[in-house]
């Protein structure tokens, strides 16, 4: 037998080339779809539960000692259960960027001392807070902090003795995870 070579030209050749190109593109598209599904699955796995809390101090006219933790006992929101009302501490469940807000009100009349407090992270003062003892003065602070997993933050009085905090839910402590960090 003699070998035969068939030469296809014109519209038929063009059509066969387009079919071949179409098959290659469909295979690449399927590969990209598969890769995209894997990436989407990873992104879904990395989504974490929300972390946010707000708590208020309910006892009225509480006298604070030196470096006494303010135990905000009325939990309004505690998504992720990272705030502990028994001790007044928030423990970061993951490394991330967090926002914290503190509002304090001094109590007038029963105590001549102004209210000096501080937001504390792992035992180190982050920011001081001050409210005079005149007419139930208020103070507040909002901070952005990078926290590692298991870092703790809380509010406490400073070294001044015998300060009176108003309570009655006028004093609040809030925080939330803005973004998880690697």
Automatic annotation (TrEMBL):
Location within or outside the cell: Secreted
InterPro entries, per database record: C1q_dom, Cerebellin_Synaptic_Org, Tumour_necrosis_fac-like_dom
Annotated C1q domain residues: 46-182
Family matches, as Pfam families: C1q
Taxonomic superkingdom: Eukaryota
SMART domains the record matches: C1Q (SM00110)
Entry keyword set: Secreted, Signal
Main location (coarse class): secreted
Protein name: C1q domain-containing protein
Organism whose genome encodes this protein: Tegillarca granosa
